[in-house]
Design brief:
- With about 375 residues, the protein is an all-alpha fold.
- Helix 3 packs antiparallel against helix 5, helix 8 runs antiparallel to helix 9 and helix 12 packs across helix 14.
- About 30% of the residues are buried.
Length: about 375
């Protein structure tokens, strides 16, 4: 009974969040949540394969194995597509060749496993299931059964490559997205995808552990409480992915309105706008009206007040101060907070943070530390 609970735990967590994410997608029509719901549904089917395996449902194992191989190779591409929906101007879902390449591999692998099973006799299938899937041995397997072994070995290698590839691509996308936020918003704490970055690292670490388990053989965990370790680890991670996914929001649409930041080359300075004058106007506006104290200050507001555009203003800030919009605002806020504390030593830190323009104490403390407050 206890072992069955552990076996079913990851599957149940995925099923619950798949339902929640689908309902949320229907309400909000958020494409990122739609892809994450598909990921959760695929993971549910994947972990149902574990459930069938550990309950020795031999009559279901060939079909389960076909679906398992396909889902196992689909979960990481689906999660990368989800990250792309959150971070990219042109997400993977809109690039048909790349989408087909990512999701075609799992489909082809599943078809190959099916074809190998279809060419095996019932006796050969039974021998393959008992010898390879349960005992982790290749002894006595010949013909189509031997081909099936090679197909499974290749899918294990592909899975390991996917883990590393998605980790590198996903983290690069998130870092690039977080950098872009700094050019548009003064307050980025509630907009960063830091939680997804942490989850991605954990997902990779635990998946590498899964690769190790597959190399050792799932049969070593049969009837053992050792099964509780990977089951609990994956259940907690899957819960975190689903929980973060329900609240994660992309600001790509808002950032789409931002023009590309022009590089400041020597040849541009002579024929372009007067960056020095624009930077001085910006600084005067900030000092006189103290716009940096506004919560959720956005670049759009400043651009409208100065009668310029984003490209020119960002270029001016880069040339004169060597800072992004976000960095400049936080420098001004920390300087204001320092003066506030000097003149009001008994003021609560939460009040200092709020009066300095911060939405949270954590954002205040982090910038205070970084900027040498």
């Amino acid at each position: 009974m206890i072992q069955s609970l552990f076996i079913a735990m990851p599957m149940m967590v995925c099923a619950i969040f798949a339902l929640e994410l689908m309902l949320s997608w229907l309400r909000r029509h958020d494409s990122a949540q739609g892809w994450l719901a598909l990921w959760a549904l695929t993971s549910t089917v994947l972990y149902s394969g574990h459930f069938i395996f550990f309950h020795h449902a031999h009559e279901l194992l060939p079909l389960s194995d076909i679906v398992y191989v396909g889902c196992n190779l689909a979960v990481y591409p689906l999660y990368l597509i989800y990250i792309s929906e959150l971070t990219d101007r042109r997400p993977i879902s809109t690039r048909l060749p790349l989408l087909v390449a990512l999701l075609g591999v799992p489909f082809v692998a599943a078809v190959m496993v099916w074809a190998a099973y279809a060419s095996m006799t019932p006796t050969a299938i039974d021998r393959f299931v008992n010898t390879y899937l349960y005992e982790g041995s290749r002894d006595g397997l010949m013909g189509a059964a031997e081909v099936q072994v090679w197909i499974h070995d290749v899918t294990h290698v592909l899975f390991g490559l996917q883990v590393l590839g998605v980790m590198v691509a996903g983290i690069r996308k998130i870092r690039r997205y977080n950098r872009r936020l700094m050019y548009v918003f003064a307050d980025t704490d509630d907009k960063h995808l830091g939680g997804i970055t942490v989850v991605l690292w954990l997902l990779v670490v635990i998946s590498l552990f899964s690769v190790l388990v597959n190399a050792i053989g799932r049969q070593w965990f049969e009837g053992s409480l050792l099964l509780a370790l990977p089951s609990v680890l994956f259940s907690v991670l899957l819960f975190c992915i689903g929980w973060i996914g329900l609240s994660a929001r992309s600001y790509v649409c808002e950032m789409e309105q931002e023009e590309s930041v022009a590089s400041i080359e020597k040849s541009d300075i002579g024929g372009g706008p007067d960056y020095q004058a624009l930077a001085e106007q910006f600084e005067q506006l900030m000092n006189v009206e103290q716009l940096y104290l506004l919560h959720d200050l956005r670049l759009d507001l400043v651009v409208q007040r100065l009668g310029t555009n984003r490209t020119y203003l960002l270029a001016a800030l880069k040339q004169k101060f060597g800072m992004s919009f976000n960095e400049y605002v936080n420098h001004k806020r920390v300087a204001y907070a320092r003066k506030l504390m000097e003149s009001n030593p008994d003021m609560l830190k939460s009040d200092v943070a709020a009066r300095s323009g911060y939405n949270s104490q954590s954002a205040f403390y982090r910038n205070w530390k970084i900027l040498g407050g």
